[in-house]
Design goal:
Blueprint (H helix, E strand, L loop, with lengths): L11 H9 L4 E8 L2 E8 L2 H7 L2 H7 L10 H10 L10 E5 L5 H8 L3 E6 L2 H14 L6 E4 L10 E7 L8 H11 E11 L5 H10 L3 E11 L2 E11 L11
Parallel strand pairs: 3-4, 3-6, 4-5, 6-7
Antiparallel strand pairs: 1-2, 7-9, 8-9
Length: about 240
């Protein structure tokens, strides 16, 4: 299935040209686990914000968060390179993928990856980024809305910086409850925002368990402490964090 809004088999050059029709582009190079990754995104996120009409913002308060590479995505990607989980052949879903760095790293480590996002431009950027980093490894790119969970389930869900507004707490918890397999787990990274407290209270009320690991992350000339959580329905699962 290809619900990214792009023809199957598009080349890197074709995808880059498609994205460049919407806005100027910039490239970000980053090293994760000793390997280099190239991410392409909008040159200026402020330009994207300026293009949002009042009607569009009023409808869903959508802002182009997808267009930036955030510390949480880097922390989650780095965690994947040292996890105790055996990712080879594992079905993995990244939600709110944006530029798709964690999903790209998971695919390079052998995972069977689906990257999802609500925003069409994010899905286009994710398709470009997955193809230019893992040209021989197919990654599915799909539209997904937390408020409308799909019927499918995954044993591993990746999420970076998806908790930033109160209105997302219950829909996101519902989504994870529906889409995570019974014995699955979620690896979630977030920058210690206060909004995460009621989110984890909601998960606990639903019978989820979690452990936390602090991850110091350097990006854009700033060091930020990110919390990476290993979330599951059982506290008897072996830990996902190495060390």
């Amino acid at each position: 299935m290809n619900t990214s809004g792009m023809p199957e088999g598009s080349s890197v050059d074709e995808l880059r040209a498609q994205l460049a029709r919407f806005f100027p582009l910039r490239d970000i190079e980053i090293e994760i686990g000793g390997q280099r990754y190239l991410l392409t995104t909008a040159e200026d996120i402020e330009q994207l914000i300026d293009r949002i009409t009042e009607e569009e913002f009023r409808e869903d308060e959508r802002l182009p968060y997808w267009a930036e590479l955030w510390h949480s995505a880097v922390a989650l990607a780095e965690t994947l390179t040292s996890t105790t989980l055996q990712l080879g052949g594992m079905r993995i879903l990244e939600i709110g993928c944006g530029l798709a760095l964690p999903g790209i790293v998971a695919a390079r480590l052998g995972g069977v990856v689906t990257c999802s996002d609500f925003e069409s431009h994010a899905r286009l950027a994710a398709r470009l980024n997955t193809l230019q980093n893992n040209p021989a490894t197919p990654v599915e790119i799909v539209h997904m809305d937390f408020r409308s969970p799909p019927g499918e389930q995954w044993p591993l869900i990746l999420a970076a910086d998806v908790i930033y507004e109160k209105r997302f707490i219950t829909p996101l918890a519902d989504f994870l409850d529906r889409v995570l397999t019974e014995d699955g787990r979620v690896l979630l990274a977030e920058p210690n925002r206060m909004i995460a407290v009621p989110f984890f209270e909601e998960l606990t009320s639903r019978g989820f368990h979690y452990s936390r690991k602090s991850h110091q992350t350097s990006l854009h000339g700033r060091d930020v402490e990110i919390s990476v959580y290993d979330i599951s329905r059982s506290n008897a699962l072996p830990p996902a964090f190495a060390g």
